[in-house]
Amino acid sequence: METDNVDTATLGTGCFWCTEAIFQRLKGVVKVVSGYSGGEQPNPTYEEVCNGTTGYAEVCQVLYDPNVLSFDELLKVFWETHDPTTLNRQGNDVGPQYRSVIFYHNAQQKEKADNYKKELNASGAWPNPVVTTIEPYKNFYSAENYHQNYYNNNPRQMYCQYVIKPKLEKFEKVFKDKMK
Which of 10, 62, 109, 114 has its CB surrounded by the most CB atoms within 10 Å? Predict the structure, then answer.
């Protein structure tokens, strides 16, 4: 795959382990890095982010080839693989670090994210309003090494079996034409 034409999306759908496992499987994705975005303190640790007071969200930076996978297609996967109507919560993960968030890198990403969110709310696709925040990208810090490629490295771990695996199975059925 050509890597000289790579774009970046920074997306949070709750726990970055789930987000990473999903986006890694898409055709056109070059690399997915789990990390933290949106806070002020440089180089936050997982423990600091988990306390919910840093302003950071658990996110994935998705590096992708826009000739293979468009930002619109990334947004479709983003919206359909988590519940964007729960404020600061995804399943049992609770706190602002688990917020549904798109950190846009340019005006086009912001416009597309805003439009998609408005369309979702107008369509009634969800019984409650979409609360996903759309925030300007200002920083990204890679999570500790043990968080990277988590599902692939720990498929038998209980969280992977009971939370990530069912999400992946559903995702693979819905997006089978977009899989690597």
Answer: 62
